[in-house]
Amino acid sequence: MFGSLLSLALISFYSRNAAFGCPAQNQYGTECRNCSTACENELCNPETGACLRCHPGFTGNFCNQSCAVNTYGKDCVMTCGFCKDERTCNHIHGSCAKGCTEGWFGEKCDIPCEFGYHGVDCNEVCSLNCLYQECDRFTGNCTFGCIPEYQGPNCQTRSSLDSQSALDGAILGYSVNGIFVFINVVLGVVFGLKFVKRQNERRRVEPIVITKSEGPTKQIVSSLVV
User: Fold this and answer.
1) How many domains does the structure of the chain reveal?
2) CB neighbours of 140 closer than 8 A, spacing ≥ 6?
């Protein structure tokens, strides 16, 4: 339907163009000026020279104006993606010359970061300390918190509680070892004292044998030394 109407319009324009006596279809007016090259197919109104349609990236009656900020393409109806530093995209094909802002990537910066990535052009990897390794694609903050022993928005800081627990555990371990050493020393002293005491008691009760000769016989007298 649209194609038929456009064809009829072109035939009408061409007929009026011939009425001006212009030798070519891409000319207009009584002086047969060439239609602007900005006009699509260089076709224009045979009376005024206004373009019938514009090339992608241009607008205006004579297609001599670039698309407005953050728009591009055919008839300037496309919206730019998320270009870095809030720059506008190329008015013809929509690409971002300086890359993408946080959370987006692709030539037109219109594709969200994939799972596990964040930042400018999605070049940053989510922290390995993020639970499930998932983070906000704009800030890099961990979505579901941190794995054990880590804390902070992006889970890069060791937990002070865990560090204190480790310190307490070390102190407890040294304390227990110290107690065992002390007990062993005390037991060694006690057993040593008992051994010395037994040795002294044996020396005190040791018998002394005296041999006395009386003629052909010997009399043995035993006495205890007090």
Assistant:
1) 3
2) 118, 119, 124, 126, 127, 154
